[in-house]
Specification:
The complex is a heterodimer of chains A (1033) and B (428).
Chain A: H1 2-11, H2 13-33, E1 45-52, H3 58-73, E2 79-87, E3 90-97, H4 103-120, E4 129-130, E5 139-147, H5 152-167, E6 173-180, E7 184-190, H6 192-198, H7 202-211, E8 216-223, E9 226-232, H8 239-243, E10 246-249, E11 256-258, E12 263-269, E13 274-278, E14 283-291, H9 297-311, E15 319-326, H10 327-357, H11 360-384, H12 398-401, H13 403-418, H14 426-456, H15 460-495, H16 508-526, H17 528-545, E16 561-567, H18 574-589, E17 594-602, E18 615-622, H19 634-645, E19 652-656, H20 658-666, E20 674-680, H21 683-698, E21 703-708, E22 712-721, H22 723-729, H23 733-744, E23 747-754, E24 757-765, H24 767-770, H25 773-778, E25 780-782, E26 788-790, H26 791-794, E27 795-803, E28 805-809, E29 812-821, H27 826-840, E30 848-852, H28 854-884, H29 887-911, H30 917-946, H31 951-982, H32 988-1027
Parallel strand pairs in A: 7-24
Antiparallel strand pairs in A: 1-3, 1-4, 2-3, 2-28, 5-14, 5-15, 6-14, 7-12, 8-9, 10-11, 13-14, 13-17, 16-18, 16-19, 17-18, 20-29, 20-30, 21-29, 22-27, 23-24, 25-26, 28-29
Chain B: H1 2-14, E1 33-35, E2 42-44, H2 45-55, E3 76-78, H3 81-86, E4 92-94, E5 96-112, E6 117-120, E7 126-131, E8 138-139, E9 144-149, H4 151-182, H5 188-214, H6 219-228, E10 234-238, E11 243-248, E12 255-256, E13 263-266, E14 270-278, H7 279-282, E15 290-295, E16 303-310, E17 320-328, E18 339-356, E19 361-363, E20 366-374, E21 377-388, E22 392-397, E23 404-406, H8 410-417, H9 419-422
Antiparallel strand pairs in B: 1-2, 3-21, 4-23, 5-14, 5-18, 6-13, 7-9, 7-12, 8-11, 9-10, 11-13, 14-17, 15-16, 15-18, 16-17, 18-22, 19-20, 20-21, 21-22
Helix pairs in contact in B: 4-5
Classes of the chains: A alpha+beta (1033), B alpha+beta (428).
Chain lengths: 1033, 428
């Protein structure tokens, strides 16, 4: 088949050229449209349902809002998980669908059920809304709106009603979230004393406000052949309009009682649950633009930036929009990294090939295959919907990709140089030499592809992280294979039309190497047992190092910025939080590395992110690396920052990166190694049992950072209505609740329109009348009968500690005890923990425990790999057998595979790197390369033997002839990976371990191929020939 | 080690530091105090036990308060106090003995004192001839406010003068008859008749004079009438006491009947405040307690008064008891009908130990404060609180006079102490 393909290509040279042009064209098109992102998107396929429930505490939010939604969602098809979070005034239900489900279909399913859920939520509590169609990578552009002479409220109005609305028109933007400042609101601040003395119930004020703010239409009338539309204008426009709304008429005197007689009408801030501050200089208004799922962040951000430029002239004087997170920075860095890889790869490969091949045309030809393969890869990625990220492209090494072409070109050049006098049959020679290496190249590349397959079977988080890498690599290999066996021979036939004239038999470098190589080769071939023994010793001693390597599951990709998650006691107030954040920013701004710091505390008015006011995301934008002064790398900077921040007590900081933080928030967020999830009903029992679990786990050797989820600690002013008391006064529970909800909380009565802007009109008691526990005790409740009774006479009012949040999973309340493991393996730790919890923790009936955390992912990956890796190994063997039709040859190469790992293991150990998936990928590539070299070598020796040359000569001759291509491929690989191994830029986290493994591993495995393989070959064959009765002698 | 501990203790004492720690769970008497040589150092038995504990080494074999992992177990936090003070995040205050006022607030309404408010009405019908006062004018007792032209009044006057003339006539007749009777010229009967005639005339005159008095004439007025034989029909209507015209209905030329309210005059220098006291507060309110009023019109001014009456019933409608206080209004700023907030000063408690509200934090069911231990160390201390005012708490147990407590920043210290507890869900 391969032969036919090569033959076809050579015969239909022009067809190949046309195909080549098509490939280049489509490749360029794909490159232009390929989604580029910094990191792969590991967010689960989820639909969030957020409900703002003003005023309600977590327990009631759960009971009245979360539970109806959650129960309506369960039973939907293709669901992986439903989890929920109920916080003060906020409910979030997350429905996680299988990755294969189309997001719009999933949202459709959710929407249908949401209708049912809405009916079950008591009226007026809140409207469940689906979150934006976005992912963890969605927050592509963050900015603050600042203006010197404008108040936070004015800035917020500008953000909400000018900037946000305009940005939402940018294609690809699904949501723009506002945070900080104050949302403008018209407020009727009622003096309760006046209500009491004028005997007006609070309800009446609300009704009056709503009734006196409407526009109506009265269809039309006809008049003198014309048509007049009828419009009743009754909307309030100004504060005076509101003040002059009549609430009641005094029965005795007949004088109207206006709103202004009951209190003041002011423009005030809406109750807020979040704030934003910047650079320690106080509050700002922040905006976050979110990318629609599956959109290209780079193009959308560029569109958005253009839009911002368009808006700028229309903004009030002095208002500036200052970005602090721009995804294109990161994307450009990614592009930069990839471009560097490609260009440095091309340069190095060309230089090396000229040196080793001694033929610059051939070298350029091989180099030409690099952009071709890249274009093929981009086309395939575009078709498969794989984004270009640090993960997918970062690990792409063009040294490996050209291996096939190198072997092909080398062989052609060698053959041509041998037959240079006979210039008639150049095409024929090319065909023959291509034919000679076609099969080995095919099988070797196929084997590399197969070793990637286990990675392609990974699922969940790790799958999303590494699948793009595996697929990109597979595409690249397929591309390089196709190019090596079709395009390269064809191009050779053009380039070497006149044969090779100036080709020296041996260039100096190769001759020099051969001088040292051949004597050593003779020795190893003569003493196979000693050779094998030495290799075995090396291999097994390297295996001994394996347990000493740490392990790391998911690599951390540098996003170039720092995100600090700051946590305070749950009882902290928002104002105090904002003050503290100001201090934190001041501390951070003292670092010369820091460009700007923006903190977002709590959640936005319309929230997607269920953060309480005790949580803050601090975004630290850093200056370019060359301006750094106090620290040399990010790790050091983070350490210094952490140290500086501990001067502000009472806070817990965790350092992360903007995207990483957001992704973690979206994917359940358990980042510890082990999470013991306790399910049950009663919050108190859950809390106590979690405490028991915490103690049990903490006592286990190796447990670190043991923490139980903090569920309590929110002070609640609890107003428990005394039913007997209200019965005596003829007051309904709802009368009291109305007052709590409206008078204290402030309730929306209507809306005030200012052009297209609309602001809530609310009525609320004056701050003195509701601002303290004492004031609330004294609020008068009026019954329909006109009786006024203070709250404290109707209800038990006390400050208690309530839950901060209630998490649910699988329709059960859940509490998590997390811990990390240091200095022992996870498996045994989990086993011990399970045993210990079983023995020591007394689980009440109805309560149960499951185990999760990173360990869950690792275990899942392990199970997958336990099936996939042996399957792949078997497939490799099958392929090898297919290539040689000899079990012995296949086995011979097969044995080389594990032994090749030796160099990689030693390198990891020496560089102090943990065994990560990246390193694992490195090993996989290493195996493939070893196979490639071995296959080429063995097949050549086989060919020599078939032409009648005795074993030893065939082995020596084969090894000698193959020395050059092997050295060429190996040195291109190593040189190609060298920049990665020492790089510190974007993507270095993925590239470093991989490159390290390959460089050292290949150096070792080359020795293996050059010395041990021939020795083994002869040893294997000799025994056989001896057994079969010395036919040749 | 022991030596070091005591020297440390005294150092702390000289700094005015009072270390008093409560470990949870201890039920023994915690506040029994001991006195050391220095007068101002007050330590208690429990403290010494705790200080020993503080001095002790933790499981990591370093002094417990120096150990980042164990310090919190004894309620000690370590912060960079210099830095925090500089940044304005940490402030201290002293617990001090002071007088504590507790108040109840109630909404009220100002009204006039009904004893000092009058409708001025004519006693006889007539036509208003003159009006001397307008709305808001001050009147003094006895001042004429309206001149009424009354036929009845003229009639009464002329009747009086006629009766006076009649009496004079009867008197002359009597004198003549008496002389004649003494001379035995007329009969005894005639004398008696003259005598009774005179008596009748006198009675008549007195009756008519009474009538003038009834119409508001004073003796002097009557005398004037008598002397000047003046029988004009103009009747001056006078103010009964000092006051201010708060209503006026008198219009010149209008005919008014008896009982028509010409003016409403009230004395506004002393006003009443009525306010509602709820059942829950009733026991605390007593006659004679001081009240101060807050009115919307003069938010910065304080008006003082005393409770004069506490209602005897609870209104079925409002479920409150009416309480009345009298308030001085010499300035005239208070106006009847104004809504006021009445603050009733219940009691003044001397010698209460008070601390600023900021300094108190909740720790579960306990109330705690933080007190400085040494440089950067602070320790948590449980306190028992009494009365609360908007600014202060009264400390019943747990602190001593002069003890320094953390005010601003106490929440931070509490957070730092409880840091272990809330580090949930954060990536390490």
């Amino acid at each position: 088949m391969i032969e036919k393909l090569i033959g076809f290509a050579i015969k239909q040279r022009f067809l190949v050229l046309v195909g080549l042009l098509l490939l280049i064209g489509f490749g360029l098109y794909s490159l232009k449209h390929l989604p580029i992102d910094a990191v792969p998107d590991v967010t689960t396929n989820q639909v969030q349902i957020n409900t703002d429930v003003p005023g309600l505490g977590p327990v009631d939010v759960e009971k009245l809002v979360t539970f109806p939604i959650e129960s309506a969602m369960s039973g939907l098809p293709y669901i992986d998980e439903i989890r929920s979070l109920s916080k003060s005034a906020f409910s979030q239900v997350t429905v996680v669908f299988a990755d294969s489900v189309d997001i719009y279909f999933a949202r459709q399913l959710v929407l249908e059920r949401l209708q049912i859920a809405k009916e079950r939520i008591p009226a007026g509590l809140g409207q469940p809304l689906m979150g934006p169609i976005s992912t963890g990578l969605g927050e592509i552009y963050r900015y603050t709106v600042e203006g010197k002479d404008l108040s936070p409220m004015e800035l917020r109005t500008i953000q909400d009603w000018i900037i946000r609305l305009q940005l939402l028109t940018v294609p690809g933007i699904t949501e723009v979230n506002s945070m900080g400042g104050f949302v403008k609101q018209y407020q009727v601040v009622i003096d309760p004393a006046k209500l009491v003395s004028l005997r007006i119930p609070l309800r009446q004020v609300f009704e009056a406000l709503a009734k006196n703010n409407v526009n109506t239409g009265g269809a039309y009338i006809e008049h003198a052949s014309e048509q007049y539309n009828i419009r009743g204008v009754g909307l309030v426009r100004t504060i005076e309009d509101i003040e002059n709304i009549v609430v009641d008429v005094d029965e005795t005197s007949g004088t109207p009682i206006f709103v202004k007689n009951l209190g003041n009408v002011i423009v005030g801030p809406e109750i807020r649950y979040g704030a934003a501050t910047r650079d320690g200089k106080g509050e700002v208004v922040a905006g976050t633009a979110m990318l629609l799922k599956n959109e290209n962040s780079r193009t959308v951000v560029n569109r958005l930036k253009k839009k911002l430029e368009d808006i700028k002239p229309y903004l009030p004087a002095g208002v500036t929009i200052n970005p602090f997170h721009d995804r294109t920075d990161l994307v450009n860095a990614t592009i930069h990294t990839v471009r560097n890889n490609i260009t440095s790869g091309i340069i190095l490969v060309v230089a090396l090939l000229i040196l080793l091949l001694g033929n610059w045309r051939g070298a350029l030809l091989v180099a030409f295959s690099i952009p071709l393969t890249a274009l093929f890869t981009f086309s395939a990625m575009y078709q498969a919907g794989i984004a270009a990220t640090l993960m997918s492209l970062g690990a792409l090494d063009f040294g490996i990709i050209v291996d096939g072409s190198v072997v092909m070109v080398e062989n052609i050049v060698r053959h041509l140089s041998l037959k240079q006098k006979n210039s008639d049959g150049i095409t024929q020679t090319i065909h023959e030499s291509a034919h000679e290496v076609g099969r080995p190249i095919f099988f070797a590349v196929m084997i590399i592809i197969i070793v990637y397959l286990p990675i392609a079977t990974l699922q969940g988080l790790e799958g999303k992280m590494f699948k793009p890498m595996a697929f990109t690599m597979i595409f690249a290999m397929v591309g390089s294979l196709i190019i090596a066996i079709t395009v390269i021979p064809v191009l050779c036939s053009f380039v070497f039309k006149k044969g090779i004239t100036a080709f020296k038999e041996e260039n100096r470098v190769i001759r020099f190497i051969k001088k040292g190589y051949l004597p050593l080769l003779h020795k190893t071939v003569d003493h196979p047992r000693i050779t094998i023994a030495i290799v075995a010793v090396c291999f097994f001693s390297s295996l001994a190092l394996v347990p000493r390597l740490g392990s790391e599951f998911i690599p951390e990709l540098d996003e170039g910025a720092i995100a600090i998650h700051a946590q305070r006691l749950p009882s902290v107030s928002l104002t105090h939080s904002a003050d503290l954040l100001g201090k934190i920013e001041q501390v951070l701004m003292q670092f010369p590395e820091v460009e700007t710091v923006v903190s977002q505390t709590g959640r936005a008015e319309i929230g997607f992110d269920p953060m309480g006011q005790e949580l803050t995301d601090v975004f630290v934008t850093l200056k370019p690396r060359k301006e750094w002064k106090t620290s040399k790398d990010k790790e050091e900077l983070v350490n210094l920052m952490e140290k500086a921040l501990t001067r502000i007590p009472g806070m817990i900081y965790s350092f992360s990166q903007p995207i990483e933080m957001r992704v973690n928030e979206l994917i359940a967020g358990i980042r510890s190694d082990i999470a013991v999830k306790l399910f049950g009903d009663d919050l108190e029992i859950l809390k106590e049992t979690a405490g028991e679990i915490e103690r049990a786990v903490a006592a286990i050797h190796g447990a670190e950072d043991v923490k139980a989820e903090q569920v309590a600690g929110q002070p609640v002013l609890q107003i428990s209505i005394d039913r007997a008391a209200i019965a005596r006064y003829g007051i309904n529970v709802s009368d009291v609740q109305d007052v709590i909800e409206t008078a204290i909380g402030g309730k929306r009565a209507s809306e005030v329109f200012e052009g297209q802007m609309r602001f809530d009109l609310i009525a609320r008691f004056s701050p003195e009348a509701r601002g303290s526990v004492e004031a609330i005790r004294n609020i008068l409740i009026s019954s329909p009968g006109g009786v006024n009774v203070p709250m404290s006479q109707l209800a038990e009012i006390e400050v208690v500690e309530g839950p901060v949040q209630i998490s649910r999973e699988h329709a059960q309340r859940r509490i998590v005890v997390e811990c990390n493991i240091r200095g022992r393996d996870i498996g045994s730790f989990v086993a011990e923990a399970q045993k210990k919890i079983k023995e020591e923790v007394n689980l009440p009936p109805g309560y149960f425990i499951t185990y999760g955390g990173q360990f869950e992912n690792m275990q899942r990956a392990r199970v997958r790999l336990a099936i996939a890796v042996p399957t792949a190994l078997f497939l490799i063997f099958v392929l090898l057998y297919a290539a040689f039709r000899s079990i012995k040859n296949a086995l011979l190469i097969y044995i080389n595979i594990p032994i090749a790992a030796t160099g990689g293991i030693v390198a990891l150990y020496l560089r102090g790197m943990p065994f990560s998936i990246s390193a694992g990928v490195g090993f996989i590539i290493l195996f493939g390369l070893t196979v490639l070299a071995s296959v080429v070598m063995v097949s050549f020796i086989n060919e020599l033997r078939q032409s009648g040359i005795p074993i030893k000569e065939a082995v020596i001759k084969g090894a000698e002839t193959r020395l050059r291509p092997i050295l060429m491929t190996v040195s291109t690989d190593i040189i190609g990976f060298l920049p990665m191994a020492i790089s510190t830029g974007m993507g270095a986290e993925v590239q470093k371990p991989l490159a390290t493994v390959i460089i050292c591993g290949e150096a070792f495995s080359t020795l293996l191929t050059l010395f041990v393989l021939p020795a083994l070959y002869r040893w294997f064959e000799k025994r056989e020939t001896e057994k079969s009765g010395n036919i040749s002698h | 080690m022991k030596k070091l501990f005591y020297s440390l203790l005294f150092c702390g004492a000289f700094l005015g530091v009072y270390t008093d720690v409560i470990l949870s769970g201890s039920e023994e008497s915690r506040y029994e105090t001991l006195r050391f040589a220095q007068g101002d150092i007050i330590e208690n038995v429990e403290d010494i036990r705790i200080d020993n504990a503080l001095e002790g080494n933790c499981e990591h074999n370093i002094p417990i308060i120096e150990c980042d992992g164990c310090r919190y177990e004894v309620g000690v936090v370590k912060v960079d106090s210099e830095f925090l003070k500089k940044e304005g995040m940490l402030e201290l205050a002293e617990a001090k003995e002071s007088t504590l006022n507790s108040i109840i607030e109630a909404p009220g309404e100002i009204s006039t004192n009904p004893d000092r408010e009058v409708h001025i009405t004519p006693r006889i019908p007539g036509i208003i001839k003159e009006v001397y006062k307008g709305l808001g004018d001050k009147v003094t007792a006895g001042e004429t406010v309206v001149l009424l032209d009354s036929i009845e009044f003229g009639q009464a006057k002329s009747d009086y003068l006629k009766a006076k003339a009649m009496m004079e006539l009867a008197g002359k007749n009597y004198d003549r008859v008496k002389t004649l009777s003494e001379k035995q010229v007329v009969s005894q009967k005639t004398f008696i008749e003259a005598e009774s005639e005179l008596e009748r005339a006198r009675i008549e005159l007195r009756a008519l004079e009474e009538r003038l008095h009834l119409l508001g004439m004073k003796d002097s007025d009557v005398q004037k009438i008598r002397e000047h034989e003046e029988f004009q029909s103009l009747l001056p209507i006078i103010a009964p006491f000092d006051g201010t015209v708060i209503e006026k209905h008198a219009v010149i030329g209008e005919r008014v009947d008896v009982g028509f309210g010409l003016f409403r005059v009230a004395d506004l220098t002393r006003l009443w405040v009525w306010f509602d006291v709820y059942e829950k507060d009733l026991a605390k309110v007593k006659n004679g307690q001081n009240v101060s009023l807050l009115v919307l019109a003069y938010p910065d001014e304080n008006f003082e008064g005393q409770i004069t009456y506490i209602g005897n019933t609870v209104s079925e409608k409002t479920r409150t008891t009416k309480v009345q206080a009298e308030v001085d209004n010499a300035t005239g700023k208070l106006k009847p009908g104004m809504f006021v907030t009445v603050a009733i000063h219940l009691s003044e408690k001397g010698g209460a130990l008070i601390i600023p509200r900021d300094s108190v934090q909740s720790d579960g069911a306990d109330k705690i404060v933080f007190i400085p231990l040494k440089d950067n160390y602070f320790i948590k201390k449980k306190v028992l609180l009494g009365t609360a005012t908007p600014e202060c708490y009264e400390v019943l147990e747990g602190l001593k006079d002069g003890q320094k407590v953390v005010t601003k920043g106490s929440f931070l210290l509490k957070s730092e102490l409880q840091k272990e507890k809330f580090g949930e869900g954060c990536p390490d």
